[in-house]
Design a protein that fits this description.
- The complex is a heterodimer.
- Chain A has one domain.
- In chain A, 75% of the residues lie in helices and 0% in strands.
- The longest helix of chain A has 29 residues.
- Chain A is globular and about 50 Å long.
- Chain B has one domain.
- Chain B is 77% helix and 1% strand.
- Chain B is built from 20 helices and two strands.
- A two-stranded antiparallel ribbon of chain B has the order 1-2.
- Classes of the chains: A mainly alpha, B mainly alpha.
Chain lengths: 228, 494
Amino acid sequence: MINTISILLAITSLFLFGSSRVRISIRMVILQGFLLGIAFLYYNQAHLTIGTWIIGVSSIVLKGIVLPWLLTFVLHRSRAKLEIEPYVGFGTSLFIGVLLLGFSTYVAWNLAINTARTIPPALFSAALFLIFCGMFLIVTRKKAITQTIGYLVLENGVFATGLGIGHEFPFIVEMGVMLDIFVGVFLMGIMIFRIDRAFDHTDTHRFNELLDSIATEPADSAEMENIQ
Amino acid sequence: MMLWSLVLVPFVAGLVSYVIVSDRIRRSVWFIAMAFHLFISFFLSFDGGEAGMSLQGGWLTLDALSRIFMPLTSLLFAAATLYAIGAFENEHGRKSDPGKAASAKVRRLSPESVFTGCILVFLASMTTVILSHRLGLQWVAIEATTLASTPLIYYHQGKRSLEAAWKYILLCSVGIAVALLGIFSLALAASGVTSELSVDSLVTHATQLDPRWLKLVFVFILVGYGTKMGLAPLHTWLPDAHSEAPSAVSALLSGALLNCAFIGILRVLQILNAAGMGSFGEHILIFLGLFSMGVAAIFILRQPDYKRLLAYSSVEHMGIVILGTGLASEGMFGSLLHAVNHSFVKSMLFMTAGNILAIYATKRIDGVRALKNRVPLLAVLWFGGFLAITGSPPFGTFISEFSILQEAVNQERYVTVGLYLFFLLLVFVGMAATFSKMTFGATTDTAPPKPLHVWSLVPPVFLGLAALMMGLYIPQQLDTMLRNAAALISGGAL
């Protein structure tokens, strides 16, 4: 069961590396949210307390329903184009993705052998792969919304790592982590709207107001705006 | 219960502030929450009995380290509150633009209520970071500080502040996600030893922790919280965020928030030291410290924007603090003292910079001349602040920078000593040129400046005097507190 979920998680991430549409990326995030929530409940099936149920179900609701819905809403309401604009082409991305998958599998298997604690290597390698995938998306995609998706994938990876390690935070901390992620993505969504209005685009690579190299040219109009 | 009230009162006041429409009532709520926090934190830290206070099953604990940073944060928040109210008044003076008033109506929440709410939640989360002994809870709180401060940074809604806030939330969140990996690794290192991730129980069982995982923990935490602390090369968001935020917020970000990230690193260092692995971290910390100082010095030399200059100076000072931490023993004491001094001076400078911005309406160094003739009080603060931030003798920063230097010499790390002095000199030269041009340079503009609200002047004057006092005379009680905290981190071996 865990192995199946891990493989599915890895496949969704490969899609994220290769897909050219924001909508498909969001669907992959939905899938990941559901898979992780199910994995969490499956993992804790021996002692399903009310707390575990709440964490598992709210994780599914949050990462599989609410946040993806929020991203879709932002996508439609802002004037962002539906295609992803990458710095690195999709073919190359996919190739790098496969390399990263190999690397994380290698690391995970080594770690799993070398520790006293039993870590399921498949889940652990999927978790590492999700983390790499999230970071890769943040670094190589131009749009603010794709970077937000990258952040969500990264957080999913961290969640999966915690699952693989088998550590449980106290209920309150677990909920706090989830609240942080929710508020974080929510804020990012609000900011994408504002960026959209202020810049007429959401391409972070055209963010050049604050580079040190251009700070030598007059920027008085922006400053007046700031003062008021 | 007292400790919980430190977190809950600002938090609840913050939530309430979002919905209060009247400026007057909202500001009173803000002011009361601030005064309450200030009073309680001082009362508990200086007068709350000698033993470490552990309440509510150890979720929040006031130990030697939090005894220093709790009142410091509270004091800075109080100063920022008064300053922000003064700055709002300064702004209202110029709000006669009809276009602006129309756009204000469109927004559903008034910007000032969002500001007040966020800044109070920000205080609550910083308090949790400082008091928390559970690493999981601390992580949640550190991420919460990022989230609460993001709306504060883009308060002005300009392009530049939006860009800064976007970089801030994305980079810091990613960094903090890495720190969560560190905490998971810590759980793995502690598996079978202790189930609760509280600093106390981990320190008690430190020698039984798996050392290989512990190394990984330290690296993850250093990268994660180091991002938040603005250590080069992870500092890239800091100059943007700190320079584009309103000055009251910049003062808090530089003075209080950077310390919170520092505390996050210190807690893990405490565990590492207790496990007898302190030497593993030393080299990394010293390298990161010097590297941050070097990067900051280069950017300070050619900086056309005075708020960015101050932001880069924060990177430099966090470098000094981390360097001192890496040197351990007397350097640890110096670094804690330096963190306190830096908070006073940098908050004061950011507030002064905000006042200069209000008068000259530009952040460009070229646009500000003859401060001495136009606003003598600001000139004194600005130039005094320059002397203090570069570690000149009458100020507290001199003592702390010197004690770090002394420790490096004692340990015969001459390369470190050489680089440390070189970067300090470089920063001094770079800042001297800028600050003297702004203070004494000639100008043709002789129009009398717009008067500033008194509340925007009192806090920087007060903080400046505090920075000066720290140089002339460190109270015995504070000295003891700092030594206790240094001993706590170093594992009692001082």
